[in-house]
Amino acid sequence: MSSGTQIGRMLAARFAQYDGTVYSAGRIVFWHDEHGEFADQLDGIAGPDAADDALRDVEVLRLERNPFALKHRMLIEQPTTKFLVYVTGALPADKDRWLLDLELAYGPWFTADRLSMIVNEMFPREASSSTRDTWLAIMRRTKPFFDDDVLVEALSRRVKADDDELDFQADMVAALLDLPSGERSLQSIWRVLLAQYADGDADGIERITATGLADYHWTGTRTIYRFDAARELEHPTVKDFVLWLFRLAWNGFTDAAHGADYYANIRRDFDMWRNDPRFATTMRALAEDVFSELNLESEVTGMGAEELASHDIFREVDDHLVALLYEALGNESIADGDVQRVVASRRYGLWHDDFAKNYAIIAAASALRARLREARPLIESIASPEGGFRLYADELYRVDGCYRRLIATWKDGGRPLAGNPIAEDLEREYARYQKDLSVTWQKQVDAMHDWSIDGIPAQAGFYTRNVKKVTDAGRKIAVIISDALRYEVAEEFRERLVAQSRWNAAIEAQLGVLPSYTQLGMAALLPNTVLALNPTDHYCVLADGRATAGMEARSAILAAVNGKAVKAEELLNMKRDEYRDLVKSCGVLYVYHNVIDATGDDPANESNVLADCSRALNELDTIVKRLANANVTNMIVTADHGFLYQNHDVTDAEWLSDQPSGDAIWQRKRRFVTGSDLARKPAFTTFTAAQVGLSDPNDEHVTIQVANGLHRMRLQGYGVRYVHGGAALPEIVVPVVHINKGRSASDDARPVEFRILQNTDRITTGQITVDFLQTEPVGGKISERTILAGLWGVEPDGHATLISNEVPLAFASTSKDPADRHVPATFLLTTDATRFNNTVIELRLSERIEGSSQMRRLDTTAEYRLQRGLSFDDGFDF
């Protein structure tokens, strides 16, 4: 852009203020061109021949002889004409300037000096003359900046009339880095420079240097952050700053000469960068870049798990911490509570995502070992069938859940189970647990005269007990039957559901059928009064003489009670109107879901059955919500049977040594046999049809035998790790999950509550430790949460400034003891706090909005009066 064009643009902006009245701003502009540099270009700048259309109606007057004539012309003869009064030479003193009243009325003077023009035409006109002089002095030192019209335009949108020398330069750097409007803090400036450095880009710092702002930038960094406070670096670089920053952070923002309060400013800003998920990629890149250059490897490898857990900046910390935790698990030198605490503390770490699978394995392995140790005395307490059944439904199911999660997470983590001492040790211990439980439980089964337990509802009565009473009351109900949904998996589903708003779920256990296999279990869940093995194959089942195998047969039985049946995959593939019409068309809907059993019964895929339990849970969640969307408010999730699973090959001791015999053997499976007059043998538990609640309509002397304990029978073509059909507790404790979607806010899930334990209302030193109390345990609809807490100073106009580090607080305790739920936080005051001395400051809390990187401020606050005896001002406000 030529100088004439730029002058024309600036003049046009001045004249644009004119509103048509005599004394309106913008009608008369006085231009002082001391050396007459633009005298020859004047006609092309303003007047009929002006390049800018907006200046063609402006009359140009040269102040050379009679100022009174000009004044008369402008005020009397042409009171609405726009005039440009062009003046050359040095301006006389005020007393000798005959047009001074007009100069003041229509000022300020327009000058042709580029920097002066910028100040007069583009920056706030209400700025004082001394402020303008200050700006001009800076501009002359940083002239390359003002040679760039884009930068000048950007700066003009930032400068305020009261900006001092430091503010003005901060605005310049902000314009250089294209910071968001209103941002000019050192934290914002360094955020951009760090991000650029992490990307291998030095544009920002190079432009700061090229425009003459380097001294200002590094002086501010030294003063505010205490970087290179001794000024040992003649020409500091961004890399120098990064190395210093991460070394300081590693040392907890202390060094040999200074405590944490000395570095409070940089700690605050580092925490802001560290805690912002949008900046995590940059922080990780910087940490990786400097780790080797800081020579920290020996320090990291020399630390124990507890000490390492207090660090999270470098990837190598998590790498070594994971190794130490695996080692401690292997030699059993760490308690489960400590493992879970350390793992939970890493959840918000900078590198957690890279190590999440390892931490999940470690947590699951430790939890399983703890549960196994707790289970031993419980097993020994079993003294009756009812006691054993209830003990499993109340407590022991947790062991199977921990084992499932361990195997699933271990495989998901890509670590081989075979050959790993921890995995193999836990596998052996779990196998011992299974054996001990099965032996103890078998003693109770041996004493049973028939397959029933006092006080425990039987699966065959499911429909009458759970469904009929709902339909009799005129309400709809949906029953989702998930094949082989073991009790512990169903309990996890219940926990997942109740953690969501408006959902309520309760679980109870019923005694599964014997043998515990799909055809009989599915038949028992249908409306029935009498069940019998189908005489044609003695495997499928008749309910009141009607076939129950397959969707068509089940639909026919349900039709008699205004019911329908549908496969889960069909329901999930329906459009909204289709599944709503399906629900409207019946009073009872049975949904048949098959993920777990389908995987387990596939010999080539059975090793994935525990991992596929998670897929089953996800699908059940979707099914339940789809039914709720069709206005089904009463639902039940149940199963036909449970299962046994072990991740090791079946040993010789686990194979059944005996073989069944009798008048006829109809069906032989891994865990059970059906036949006629089967011979009673010690290796089997033998019941007649009547003893297991089955009819024998053809008087075939139907006999049921199940392998004792955990034993499997040798057969060709079947899986051996995943089995069911027997009388072991994981096979026959069948879940019934009652689900209801509420309509009131009382059914909403919510984050755990906490409060500030404020034991003082004054701060008299550079730091304060505040105690927070999580007022209730996490669990059910009460979820954990993480809060950011910091001290803020508040200006009279309401503007707030963070004057301490921000501390992340995790409220995640499940303990019922309040003493275990205290969370302390230490806040270090920055130098910004000096401005708020002898005022009331606020402890403010914020929380990330779920599903986003945005934060929301919480209503909970605490106020403190800041009364520090000694304070100082570093002179930098940005």
Short characterization:
This is Alkaline phosphatase. The protein has 878 residues and is α/β, with parallel strands linked by helices.
Describe the fold and architecture.
Among the domains are: 1-112; 309-447, Tetracycline Repressor, domain 2, CATH 1.10.357; 459-642 and 732-742; 749-866, Immunoglobulin-like, CATH 2.60.40. The strands form 8 sheets. Strands 6-20-12-5-11-10 form a 6-stranded mixed beta sheet, with helices on both faces. It has 878 residues and is of the alpha/beta class. The protein is 40% helix and 19% strand.
Salient structural properties:
alpha/beta, six-stranded mixed β-sheet, 40% helix
Structural class: alpha/beta
What is the rounded distance between the termini? 33 Å
- General form: elongated
Compute the gyration radius: what is it? 40 Å
Mean pLDDT: 92
Helical residues, percent? 40-55%
Sheet bearing the most strands, described?
A: 6 strands, mixed
Helical segment count: 31
Estimate what percentage of residues fall within beta strands.
15-25%
Which regions have little confidence, pLDDT < 50, spanning 5+ residues? 871-875
DSSP E strands, number: 31
Strand order of the largest sheet: 6-20-12-5-11-10
Organism: Bifidobacterium stellenboschense
InterPro entries: Alkaline_phosphatase_core_sf, PglZ
Protein name: Alkaline phosphatase
Pfam families: PglZ
What's the layout of helices and strands?
Layout: H1 3-15, E1 28-33, H2 42-45, E2 58-62, H3 67-77, E3 82-88, H4 100-106, E4 110-111, H5 114-122, H6 129-141, H7 143-146, H8 149-156, H9 165-176, H10 186-198, H11 203-210, H12 214-225, H13 238-250, H14 264-275, H15 280-290, H16 297-301, H17 305-308, H18 315-330, H19 336-346, H20 352-380, H21 385-412, H22 421-446, H23 462-472, E5 477-482, H24 487-498, E6 503-511, H25 518-524, E7 531-533, E8 541-543, E9 546-547, H26 551-559, E10 563-567, H27 568-573, H28 576-584, E11 588-593, H29 596-600, H30 609-629, E12 634-638, E13 644-645, E14 662-668, E15 672-678, E16 684-688, E17 694-695, E18 702-707, E19 722-723, H31 729-732, E20 733-741, E21 750-751, E22 754-757, E23 762-763, E24 767-774, E25 782-783, E26 785-794, E27 800-802, E28 807-811, E29 822-828, E30 840-848, E31 855-866
Parallel strand pairs: 1-3, 1-4, 2-3, 5-11, 5-12, 7-17, 10-11, 21-25, 23-31
Antiparallel strand pairs: 6-20, 7-8, 8-9, 12-20, 13-19, 14-15, 15-18, 16-18, 22-24, 24-29, 26-27, 26-28, 26-30, 30-31
Helix pairs in contact: 1-5, 5-6, 8-9, 10-15, 18-20, 19-20, 20-21, 20-22, 21-24, 24-30
Protein name: Alkaline phosphatase
Pfam family, one: PglZ
Organism: Bifidobacterium stellenboschense
